[in-house]
Design goal:
The complex is a heterodimer of chains A (116) and B (134).
Chain A lengths: L1 E6 L8 H14 L3 E7 L19 H8 L5 E4 H6 L11 E4 L1 H9 L3 E5 L2
Helix pairs in contact in A: 1-2
Chain B lengths: L13 E5 L8 H14 L4 E5 L21 H8 L5 E6 H6 L18 E3 L1 H9 L3 E4 L1
Parallel strand pairs in B: 1-2, 1-5, 2-3, 3-4
The chains are: A alpha/beta (116), B alpha/beta (134).
Chain lengths: 116, 134
């Protein structure tokens, strides 16, 4: 099955980002294809490679590790509203428009929203 | 884009479910952006308002004093767009002391709000390929 994921909330404020990561890892482990992860609204903060979490789990870097196998895309407008620029992004991630979200939706069998 | 006068309304594959209050979070405003993108690319969509999300449609809301733009007028215009179906959860309105008369009127010639009861929500949501919650 082809699965798409969207995250709307920021890491650390709630458990949504953790759950989204675990969901993607579990889907891949079960042999499903993950069509992509779209970071929207405050979910965009998951693309900030400057996040530092001494002694704690670094969720953006966990996402970066997944991004070598899964398409990871953030909303470019959301990034501008939050002062996140391309140079800040985690490895293998990119910023795009809502057309990428539509393509992701069209290309998957199931789509799951976290943080909505 | 498809001319509304030439094409029948298709059955939407996607549902945007707006549950959060306007202005309290950016959810409804971002959902509005997504609806515009769906429309621009000829994707039919259902926009379902429930819980505090129904407050996005209340007429007379003026968020100018807090530096924000009114969402209700923007949402009222969506119902007239090709492929955009607006549904409102009836019980969410009633729980907040509201009725459809309290909502912003649709544009002329646009279909009326589709009021959906709790007992109908499951079937409505299940009829879509994907649901995006805001």
């Amino acid at each position: 099955m082809k699965i798409g994921v969207m995250l709307l909330s920021s890491p650390y404020q709630t458990e949504d980002a953790d759950t989204a990561l675990h969901f993607v890892e579990a889907a891949l482990a079960r042999g499903h294809e993950v069509a992509g992860v779209f970071l929207f609204m405050d979910g965009l903060y998951m693309l900030n490679g400057k996040v530092a979490t001494p002694g704690e789990r670094n969720l953006p870097q966990e996402l970066a590790a997944l991004a070598s196998r899964v398409r990871v895309v953030g909303c470019g407008t959301c990034a501008r509203f939050r002062g996140v620029v391309k140079a800040d992004l985690i490895a293998n991630a990119r910023l795009a428009g809502l057309t990428d979200l539509l393509e992701m939706l069209d290309g998957c069998d199931r789509f799951v929203t976290f943080g909505g | 884009m498809v001319d509304a006068s030439e094409a029948p309304r298709p059955r939407p594959q996607y549902c945007l479910h707006i549950r959060s209050a306007p202005y309290g979070t950016s959810g409804p405003a971002e959902a509005f952006r997504v609806v515009q993108a769906f429309f621009a690319f000829d994707h039919a969509v259902t926009v379902l308002f429930s819980d505090d999300g129904v407050l996005s449609l209340v007429r007379g809301a003026d968020p100018a004093p807090i530096g924000m733009k009114p969402l209700s007028e923007a949402f009222s215009e969506l119902g007239g767009l090709w492929g955009v179906d607006i549904a409102v959860h009836r019980e969410s309105l009633e729980e907040r002391g509201l009725s459809v008369e309290d909502l912003v009127p649709h544009q002329e010639d646009a279909p009326a709000y589709r009021l959906v009861r709790t007992s109908e929500l499951e079937a409505l949501l299940a009829s879509h390929k994907a649901i995006l919650r805001f």
